[in-house]
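Section 3.1: Structural characterization of target chains.
Under the original work plan, the team committed to producing a structural model for every single-chain target entering the pipeline before any wet-lab resources were allocated. The record below documents one such target. The sequence was received from the expression subgroup and is listed exactly as submitted; it comprises 307 residues.
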Amino acid sequence: MSRTAQSKAPRTGWWRRVERARARITPVFGMNRRNVQLVYAHNERRHYPLADDKILCKALLQRNGVPVAPTIAICRGLFEVDALLAELQRRENFVVKPASGSGGDGIVVVGERTADGWRTPRGRPIGRLEMRQHIANTTFGAFSKELEDRVLVEERIVPHALYDAFWPDGVCDLRIIVLRGQPVLSMVRVPTRRSGGRANLHQGGIGVAIDIRRGMTYRALSAGALVERHPESGEALVGRALPDWERCLEVALAAAASVPLGFLGVDICVDARWGPVILEINARPGLEIQNVCGQTLGDALPEGILG
């Protein structure tokens, strides 16, 4: 049989299996495809600092009227550590963040004051000496893989009642993937005991998929397994209408419009006092959201948006 005849012959057996597998794989975005078609194609490297530096990003968002958590103080180096510590000794309910950190590393959430310093919301004491050491280490870039960094101190988020019910010992956040001004996929990241009260999925948080059009949760993934309820709090995760969802979308799109980045992940918290506020933006958002939502980026992207 000639090659032409072979090409026209019915494709059966193993070839059909190959085509079915290819049809499933094609919409999936792995790291390389994400980088080439989304990150490199829509985000110029010179603009990465607008997302990577929390202080720089926050200033830009504020200039554009995008809601963020109030700033208490900024420490620009070791020479300001003692002044910052003196300011914090009069305060409680604040969060200490490395300006250029990622993945939640180096973030310390502080609750009430004590005679010797503070206590975290989970009850762990933090003495003044420990806090001073942590801030100093942060300025030396211990959590940002840089030679130096700055420290951002913000007022602590008070979660909306729904998110507090999901898991009261941490703060849930919303991740909304935006491409060229359009929301593509979204999820709630819910802390667990395993994640140490952090919402990051790679540390053990739960991903809860959101139907962008309705603001309803429809699927939840914990440690690779589908769940209906939070394994520790017992709270139902699926079938929940999220508060202020339309406003969350507005805030996410306003944040995306404030920076010259075409593809980004926008992280939002819904505070009981302030409503939706931006936590940070990410110019290279992770891909686990595809597993959480049970939908690939290829399927979620509007037709023709990649050109």
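The two ends are 39 Å apart (CA to CA).
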